[in-house]
Design goal:
This protein has 10 helices and 15 strands. The protein has 274 residues and is an alpha/beta fold. A 5-stranded mixed β-sheet has the order 11-10-12-9-13, with helices on both faces. Bound molecules: glutamine (GLN).
Length: 274
């Protein structure tokens, strides 16, 4: 089976992480972020689409990382994380909810960046840069409770539901022989078509798969990706190529990990959702 290049990517991400720690940050770059504890003045020096603002795209159809909250606004782990990053950078974060498959091409023209449980892939790296990875993921397979599907071979020739433009979509198309791939704008629609029999399986990231398993309790079961030979993926924030934002976002992520904010968000949004 053709692999998703995830191994090579993991290495590339790893190398870029090492490099950022050691040699990526320009020593003569102006200090971009206001001093910690004094981040509310918005006097940021970053070049963004709108001065003082960080316009970030997401697709709020991917719980627990992003979903539409009770107030109608995008909420979830990624939203909380990017707001905390924005605060460190002295930038007001504005969220634009859009289709997942439009995010990468919108970066630099409609949005300053994207956070959307987005996996670092070689293809996306042709168009954008990624921050250091902030979360490890893997694709899972959702099947109905009475399904016999257990391994990659069992998926051959089946109807597979995916979210359009996602790594699950690429796996279904590139790695599963003879599959009919049904791509949806919302992963939940793929799950609805699993329940009503139009799909035999849905390939979707682990954490949303676990949320769907509990939302469709008794109807669907989430199977681990390792059972299917799927390799780990890394989520990162997508930013314009060669942007001064990238090292600053990395520094903010590092600080949020060091001061415990990151772990608190994992607990609040991810662990409590499972
Ligand atoms: N991690 C997957 C990808 O990057 C799915 C992301 C999503 O659907 N929001 O393609």
């Amino acid at each position: 089976m053709k692999k998703l290049l995830v191994k090579a990517l993991a290495l590339a991400v790893c190398m870029s992480t090492l490099c950022l720690a050691g040699c990526g940050a320009k020593p003569d770059a102006p200090a971009p972020a206001p001093a910690a504890g004094n981040t509310s003045e918005g006097s940021s020096e970053f070049k963004t689409l709108e001065s003082g603002k960080l316009i970030i795209g997401t697709n709020a159809e991917f719980p627990p990382f992003e979903y539409v909250g009770d107030d109608g606004e995008p909420d979830g782990f990624d939203m909380a994380l990017i707001k905390a990053v924005g605060e460190k950078l002295g930038l007001e974060v504005e969220i634009q909810n859009m289709e997942f498959s439009s995010l990468v091409t919108a970066i630099g023209s409609k949005i300053d960046g994207a956070i959307a449980g987005m996996t670092v892939t070689e293809e996306r790296l042709q168009t954008v840069d990624f921050s250091d990875p902030y979360y490890e993921a893997v694709q899972y397979v959702l099947v109905t409770s009475d399904s016999d599907i257990k391994s990659a071979e069992d998926l051959v020739g089946k109807n597979i539901g995916v979210q359009l433009g996602t790594t699950g979509n690429f796996i279904a198309e590139d790695d599963i022989e003879g599959a009919t791939v049904n791509a949806y704008n919302k992963a939940v629609d793929a799950v609805n078509d699993l329940v009503n029999g139009k799909n035999d399986a849905v390939i979707v990231d682990k954490n949303p798969a676990l949320v769907f398993e509990s939302n469709f309790e008794g109807q669907v079961v989430a199977l681990e990706g390792s059972q299917f030979g799927f390799e780990n993926e890394q989520y990162a924030i997508a930013l314009p190529k060669d942007s001064e934002l990238t090292p600053a976002v990395n520094k903010a992520l590092e600080e949020l990990k060091a001061d415990g904010t990151f772990d608190e968000l994992v607990k609040k949004y991810i662990e409590e959702a499972e």
